[in-house]
Design a protein that fits this description.
Radius of gyration: 23 Å
CATH superfamily of the largest domain: 3-Deoxy-D-manno-octulosonic-acid transferase, N-terminal domain
CATH architecture of the largest domain: 3-Layer(aba) Sandwich
Structural class: alpha/beta
CATH topology of the largest domain: Rossmann fold
Strand order of the largest sheet: 3-2-1-4-5-6-7
Largest sheet: 7 strands, parallel
Number of helices: 19
Strand content: 15-25%
Distance between the termini: 35 Å
Shape: globular
């Protein structure tokens, strides 16, 4: 009850911002009943009550990145446990839309906010025996009520930065019971495992699996999706494409600065910009146009281009395509790494063998960025203006640029296997549930 009261106070305090964003950008409106009141059986067609009874495995992925993360994991779990019904929840609109596309045959819904009544309603509807949270979702009511119902609560690809771990540790008295209720945590590295232990997770409930992102990273450009985008953009084999992906404010300007300085003497250079958030698409389009370039927007141009001139900048203002767009570039800047964001996934361009760079703040991908840097497989930029110098070096020394990308690809291939380790552990928990039920009977 106290937690529900605190959540209510927090929701009231942020309601002006929520209302503004809902009115201005259309956010938070969809799935409001499922979020606030919980999931009901008739939210699906056919209703869950009309389907043959099966044990339920609930996978929760907050947004686009997490949905992409669990795609391979869900497929592998399904193969290993064909008797289970899989349901997918997400939190954001973009995550929901991508989940519907990625999992067309599975029920997809908006996860409940951590109010006890919404969580309880969802658990009563699903009656899951397994809950898989992607990376880090520490919601006390959800974990407490799921655990109390007999559901095995797990975390896949566990990520806990030093900063977040320190905050939870300082509030250990409050959060330790939540961490202690986790049945299993698959951690990306040993440092993360230690942080979970310091926050209250039982050591025997932890396995260091490595990062599933290595398994999910692409390893070839020769795919129908990449070829389709190449035709749409009129990308030629002699082009040197710079892609600035998952960008935040200020990072698009750095990419445009690099392009403006280098394209006059490197006519092979082309630029693609992919902002992180859809509410900034128009803003970025205006920025590109203000620099004197023609903006080719992915959402507005459906027919393939006849040619791609240096005067045109491609703006990818769609959701869920970035993975394939990385396959067009030879030079990659991974955004969210200047400023407080903490970086974005740099393994996708690395898997394609692109010469990859990012800014100084990659705390959300600390282990991955560290592995790439230690192997000489990526470059960390100190400030936005360094992007121009990095791109210039890649264009003037294509052999070294290619070698940088090849080293990145080798790092990706050498660290695979986390998905199999995770599925083995999840299947083990499922088997233990079955054994317990049979023993009780």
């Amino acid at each position: 009850m106290l937690l529900d009261f605190l959540y209510s106070i927090l929701l009231i305090s942020v309601s002006p911002l929520v209302i503004y964003r809902a009115a201005r950008f259309g956010r938070y409106r969809r799935g409001i009943r499922q979020k606030c009141l919980g999931l009901r059986p008739d939210d699906f067609r056919p209703p869950l009550t009309d389907l043959p009874p099966k044990p339920v495995a609930w996978f929760h992925a907050v947004s686009v990145g997490e949905v992409n993360l669990i795609a391979g994991l869900v497929a592998a779990f399904r193969d290993a446990n064909p008797g289970h019904r899989i349901v997918i929840s997400t939190t954001t609109d973009t995550g929901y839309d991508l989940a519907r596309a990625r999992f067309p045959d599975d029920p997809v819904f908006f996860a409940p906010l951590d109010f006890s009544w919404a969580v309880k309603q969802t658990l009563d509807t699903l009656r899951p025996e397994l809950l898989v949270l992607a990376e880090l979702e520490i919601w006390p009511n959800l974990i407490r009520l799921a655990h109390r119902s007999g559901c095995r609560v797990t975390i896949a690809n566990g990520r806990l930065s030093a900063r977040s771990g320190g905050r939870y540790a300082k509030l250990r008295r409050f959060f330790a019971p939540t961490f202690a209720r986790l049945d299993w945590v698959g951690c990306q590295d040993a440092q993360t495992a230690q942080r979970f232990i310091e926050c209250g997770t039982r050591p025997e409930a932890i396995t260091v699996t490595g990062s599933i992102k290595f398994d999910n990273a692409p390893d070839t450009r020769d795919t129908p999706e990449v070829h389709r985008l190449a035709r749409w953009s009129a990308t030629e084999s002699w082009h040197q494409v710079l892609l600035a992906g998952s960008t935040q404010p200020g990072e698009e300007a750095a990419a445009l600065d690099a392009y403006r300085e280098l394209s006059p003497r490197h006519r092979e250079l082309r630029l693609i910009i992919v902002p992180r958030h859809k509410e900034r698409f128009d803003e970025v389009a205006e920025l590109i146009a203000s620099r004197g370039y023609v903006v080719r927007r992915r959402s507005q141009c459906h027919a393939p281009a006849e040619h791609w001139s240096p005067e045109t900048v491609v703006l990818v203002d769609t959701i869920g395509e970035l993975r394939n767009w990385w396959g067009l570039c030879q030079i990659a800047f991974v955004g969210g790494s200047f400023g407080p964001r903490g970086g974005q996934n740099m393994l996708e361009p690395a898997g394609y063998g692109a010469a990859t760079c990012f800014g100084p703040n990659t705390q959300n991908f600390a282990e991955i960025s560290s592995r790439l840097l230690q192997a000489g497989a990526a470059i960390r930029l100190a400030e936005p203006s360094d992007l121009t110098r990095f791109v210039s070096r890649c264009l003037e020394d294509p052999a070294e640029s290619s070698a940088l990308g090849q080293r990145a690809k080798e790092v990706v291939l050498s660290h695979r296997g986390a998905t199999d380790k995770t599925v083995n552990q999840l299947s083990r928990r499922v088997s233990e549930n079955v054994a317990a039920i049979r023993s009780a009977a």
